[in-house]
Specification:
Structural class: alpha+beta
Radius of gyration: 60 Å
Number of helices: 22
Distance between the termini: 115 Å
Length: 820
């Protein structure tokens, strides 16, 4: 199969042959009034010019009124040739052709050693019974071609026809007959019409092509071979051209003897006599089916490519040097709706912001398309942001490559625009995630360091009370003789146990707050009263450090919606922190004021102070670790963190202020005032009422920790209660059925069964329907309390249990029993 270039070249050759043949048919009209010498000279010039020949030689032997003629024409623009050498070569070739039996068998002639040899072609034409000879020469490989032979033969015979007209009608008829014979021998289908438009001649090629016989095809019979769909148009074209006597050309389908219908192109040229009379048309019909099939294939291929082109997920376009798009797919219309490159589009170039590899914006002349137009390859491309008609800006990548001809001159370029917005956003998200991951890693590392130091401090804080406890136990074991010593030992042990309980309570509180397990029970209370109670709790520590303390309450009540216990815890932690981090003999103050719609608590000391860089971090977990350790007076470094979280739960704020190391600290708590009218929301009392002593009760204590169970039972027996002790769940159920207790203190984590299951079992024993069951557990989170309540417990105490709380609770239970 021929390539498109070969196909186009063949079409061009066929068209040139057709044009030359048509042109040659007009020569008789041009030569009609010329003498034989003029005809021969014109023919020589025509051939030399039309076929681009180096030389033309024509010999006529002479006949009748025509004298023998020899004409030689040379091309004068060959620098290496001289007229003498070329003339000698032409003469020799002409003589050889005249005397040769086979004039086509002529050897090339070499004039100069460095030049290509002259190739010759010959043609004979008749003048009466004699033969004339035409010799043509050129320095071309394959010369003469079939095309050149055809044109040479037609031209020679055209000249012969004119010359024969000078003889006689018989000689003219014989010349025309030879022309028609030549037409029959031509590969194209040649035809001739008369002035009335009727066909008078069709070459043999037509009949071989269509299988029409000569009688059927003449006049207008040839139309029967034309495809029915184009038959009327073909006839109309011929009739119209004949009437207007103008050239015509048309394509139509023509019946083929084998292949059904094939596409042909028919061209016609009007003929005129020397006197200007219209003689009809001469023309030819060329088979162009191969060309049409190739064109169809090209169209189908183009349609396929266009479909694929439009289906591409990227914008693709071909642009000319003027910046206008020659071809583009649908995706590119989104970016270039005006069909002009953005670098040359004054209205839309501002929608594009292109960047170089370092992220710097580019000038318009450095856009990818502009650079490709200058012959530069921009691959893989440059990144650019594009602002769409919807106002949304997206990231793209624009690549471009120049289109160059064989002369290496840039005639345009191909541009490709890829939407990389999702990639860029993912890339940015990954960078952000990576940065956040690094931050989290640093936070985790810091938390691990803080936790390690916290555990060391925790161990230290736990060992501090354990050491005197161990010593006190040893003193009690040997039995001190002085009752005052024993009393002091017991007081000391009670203080240390309370210290341990305080440490555990702090840990539990911070865990509950952090996990959202703390339940804030707000009521309308006077902040002055809360502060007063909190100060009373903290005064022993302040007095212990010999600090001077100044308390200034607000002159009027300050109603707030708050959990009094938790706000008291906040104030206590702030005072404890101030007392610990102020050297002995320092000055502490607490002021309660009003600032607009807020109540303000200010705690100030003249202690060690806080560096400016640490003012915010003091509220972080374990903040004392690694700072001011030499001033630490015990504690886990979680007090201020608990303060902030409790204040946050109340919707308030807390802040720290200090002028630096050694210049003291100030902590400010702000809480919103409750502006509800006092009549509709009276203030609740903060102070608790004294609980009367409880009467004797039947009590069952169940704990797998024998020491815990025994010590609690001893405490209860000292208060006059009847106590039974069990150490697992089954034993508790058995003893409960026997002693029928009024109160049960029940550990949750028993070895054989859960305390929750024991509680449910107790409720099934006859007589225990109204028994008070109290959970005693080391677990005290909100969900732990909820599970205890669901299991049937009436109360939940968290270990270690304060003995006063137990006794107070029993007093309430006893009072309730008396009232019923």
């Amino acid at each position: 199969m021929h390539s498109p270039d070969e196909y186009r070249a063949e079409i061009d050759r066929l068209r040139k042959t057709t044009r030359d043949l048509v042109a040659m048919t007009t020569l008789p009209a041009i030569w009609g009034d010329l003498p034989p010498e003029g005809v021969i000279d014109s023919l020589a010039s025509f051939l030399r010019t039309t076929l681009d020949l180096a030389l033309v030689g024509i010999h006529l032997p002479g006949k009748g009124e025509i004298d023998p003629l020899d004409t030689i024409r040379l091309r004068r623009n060959d620098d290496n040739d001289d007229d003498g050498a070329m003339l000698a070569a032409a003469r020799a070739a002409l003589d050889a052709a005249i005397g040769s039996a086979d004039p086509h068998d002529m050897r090339p002639a070499t004039l100069h050693a460095n030049d290509a040899p002259l190739q010759f072609g010959t043609a004979r034409f008749g003048i009466g019974s004699e033969l004339g000879v035409v010799v043509i020469g050129a320095r071309r490989a394959g010369f003469p071609s079939e095309h050149e032979r055809l044109l040479l033969g037609v031209a020679a015979n055209q000249a012969a026809a004119i010359l024969q007209r000078r003889l006689a009608e018989r000689a003219l008829a014989r010349s025309e007959s030879r022309f028609l014979d030549l037409a029959d021998a031509a590969p194209a289908m040649l035809w001739v019409t008369e002035p009335d438009g009727k066909l008078s001649f069709l070459s043999r090629a037509w009949h071989e092509f269509t299988a029409q016989d000569r009688g059927t095809s003449l006049a207008f019979g040839w139309t029967a071979a034309v495809h029915p769909d184009e038959r009327d148009a073909a006839l109309h074209a011929v009739v119209d051209a004949n009437a207007r006597r103008v050239p015509f050309s048309m394509e139509h389908r023509l019946r083929h003897v084998v292949d059904g219908y094939r596409w042909v192109i028919a061209t016609g040229q009007p003929r005129f006599a020397a006197n200007g009379d219209f003689l009809g048309f001469v023309g030819n019909v060329l088979d162009i089916s191969d060309r049409k099939r190739t064109e169809q294939a090209l169209h189908e291929t183009r349609d396929t490519l266009v479909t694929m082109f439009d289906a591409l997920p990227v914008g693709v376009a071909v642009a000319g040097q003027d910046g206008k798009l020659l071809l583009s797919n649908q995706a590119m219309h989104r970016y270039l709706p005006t069909g002009v490159l953005p670098s040359l589009d004054e209205e839309r170039y501002m929608r594009w912001t292109a960047f170089d590899a370092d992220g710097r914006p580019l000038e318009r002349r450095d856009f990818a398309g502009a650079r490709a137009s200058r012959g530069e390859r921009v691959v893989p491309g440059i990144e650019a942001r594009y602002l769409g008609d919807d106002g949304v800006e997206i990231w793209t990548q624009v690549a471009a490559v120049p289109l160059k001809g064989r002369d290496d001159v840039t005639r345009g370029h191909v541009a490709i625009v890829t939407d990389i917005d999702a990639f860029k956003r993912t890339e940015a998200a990954l960078r952000l995630a990576e940065s956040r991951q690094r931050e989290l890693f640093d936070e985790v590392a810091k938390a691990n360091r803080n936790l390690s130091e916290f555990l060391a401090v925790l161990a230290h804080e736990l060992r501090n009370p354990l050491a005197p406890l161990m010593t006190g136990l040893e003193l009690l074991r040997v039995g001190p003789r002085d009752p005052a010593v024993a009393a002091n030992v017991r007081d000391m042990m009670e203080r240390q146990v309370r210290q341990l309980a305080h440490l555990i309570d702090d840990l539990l509180d911070i865990a509950r707050v952090t996990n959202g397990k703390v339940e804030i029970r707000k009521t309308r209370v006077d902040l002055n009263a809360i502060v007063t109670n909190a100060v009373e709790t903290s005064l022993p520590l302040i007095d212990k450090h010999r600090h001077a303390f100044d308390l200034q309450l607000h002159a009027a009540p300050l109603p707030v919606q708050a959990d009094a216990t938790r706000i008291a815890q906040v104030i206590g932690n702030l005072l404890t922190n101030a007392a610990k981090y102020t050297p002995p003999g320092g000055v502490l103050s607490l002021r309660v004021t009003q600032d607009g719609a807020h109540a303000v608590i200010t705690v100030t000391d003249n202690g060690v102070g806080i560096p400016a860089a640490s003012l915010e971090s003091v509220f972080e977990m374990f903040s004392q670790v690694g700072s001011n350790r030499q001033h630490a007076q015990g504690g886990l470094g979680i007090g201020l963190s608990l303060v902030r979280q409790l204040v946050d739960l109340h919707g308030g704020t807390v802040s720290a202020h200090s002028e630096g190391i050694g210049k003291g600290s100030t902590f400010v708590v702000r809480l919103a005032l409750d502006e509800t009218p006092a009549a509709s929301a009276p203030l609740e009392e903060v102070a608790a009422q004294d609980t009367p002593a409880a009467p004797a009760l039947r009590i069952l204590v169940t704990d797998d920790n024998v020491d815990a169970a025994v010590t609690l039972s001893m405490l209860l027996e000292m208060e006059g209660h009847a106590v039974t002790v069990a150490h697992d769940g089954q034993q508790a159920l058995q003893m409960a059925a026997q002693c029928v207790p009024e109160v049960v203190f029940l550990d949750i984590g028993l070895p054989d069964m859960s305390g929750h299951d024991v509680a449910r079992g107790l409720r099934q024993i006859a007589g225990l329907e109204r028994c008070t069951i109290v959970a005693v557990s080391g677990w005290g989170a909100q969900d732990d309390l909820a599970r205890s309540s669901a299991a049937g417990f009436d109360a939940h105490f968290t270990k270690p249990v304060d003995s006063s709380r137990v006794l107070d609770y029993l007093a309430v239970v006893a009072a309730s029993m008396r009232s019923t």
